[in-house]
Amino acid sequence: MNHTNESLFERGKLVMPGGVNSPVRSFRSVGGTPYFVASGEGPYVTDVEGKTYIDFVQSYGPGILGHAHPKVIEAITKAASAGTSYGAPTLGEVELAEEIARRIPGMEMMRMTSSGTEAAMSAIRLARGATGRNTIIKFAGCYHGHTDSLLVAGGSGVANQGLAGSDGVPDGAVADTIVAPFNVIPEIDETIAVVAVEPVAANMGLVPPSEGFLKGLREACDKAGAMLLFDEVITGFRLAHGGATEWFGVQPDVWAFGKVIGGGLPVGLYGGSREVMAHISPLGGVYQGGTLSGNPLATAAGLATLEVLDRDAYVELERIANRLATGMRSAFADAGVDAIVPTVGPIVGLFFGTEAPTNFDEVKVLAENGVYQKFFHECLSRGVALAPGPYEILFPGLAHSDAVIDEAVAVMAEAANAIA
Ligand SMILES: *Cc1c(COP(=O)(O)O)cnc(C)c1O
Hints:
Order of helices and strands: HEEEHHEHEHHEEHEHEEHHHEEHHEH
Number of strands: 13
Largest sheet: 7 strands, mixed
Helix content: 25-40%
Number of helices: 14
Strand order of the largest sheet: 4-10-9-8-7-5-6
CATH class of the largest domain: Alpha Beta
Shape: globular
Bound molecules: pyridoxal-5'-phosphate
Strand content: 5-15%
Radius of gyration: 21 Å
CATH topology of the largest domain: Aspartate Aminotransferase, domain 2
CATH architecture of the largest domain: 3-Layer(aba) Sandwich
């Protein structure tokens, strides 16, 4: 039987809300029918109708080596043939934790989970348990997964769906959450347990931290005895070999990771110093666990991914990102389309407007002007897949060769002319 995107979407919609398992995938914010992926290879995905796209979604980050990287597939296959989950500790968990501890100075111990949501949620619980305080501060437009207490003014899918937060989250669940504007140091007093931040905001498009913002947060937290949490689920091992800590030279108390460290399998991880992590059960009183936490397939895929991501790889990732960003900027300039293509190292964003936004309010104005949606479809119909929403970033990776980047830029130039 021949499947089409349309037929699968119709079938999917009958059995899954919006036909999807994560809202952004439904194309609701760009309109149209999502492509159903049949396979991926390197920088490409191919849909069920046989159409191939240059993929800048890459699973929203995990595909930093491209799809079906031979080393990752080999690691997963080897792990799977020895069993997929045991409910007992394994060598792979120890090795992955050791590798991450080597990369991030100050993160001496960690715990693995099955998603970034769980990692951020557990990091918040840890900070509350360790400080004995309840109140948390998050920044508008930063996304920390779909935990109740963090599901206010999130970017990404939350913003895409036009929801301020979510139905079903009781007022009580967010009563201890303060939302502050990104890039302004909020008032932090002795009631604050933790300040959670994406060190580079990458779920409201790409918004870099302004000069001194992260350092200022560090100082303000120290003064108040509050903890600082870097949610590195996107920046972790995409931005730099040692993550945002290395890139910005600012060390938080607690980190959350996900995406890249699972090499495309479900994963999350949070950690801190030995002293802080001593609060986690069974050493301390903060409970967190998981049937599939530290899953042998996920740890194998994560380790294989990190092995490829040596220091040279980050030089290459940044070079690729710059080639893409430079090409996009001239494509838009030539077409006379007002666009901003911000970069932070290997991370690339896209806004349609004349001034780079510095916070969520400014992002929303540009994201809702309707241009991204048009550009998205002009690109997609020509074989370049961007994320189906204006609050996401682009995810070029090591599989995007110069030829692939140049081809994508040529498509974007045509798309820019089409919307001009
Ligand atoms: C994706 C993301 C999460 C949530 O991770 P999931 O694996 O989707 O649960 C949390 N924080 C940030 C910064 C993210 O980008």
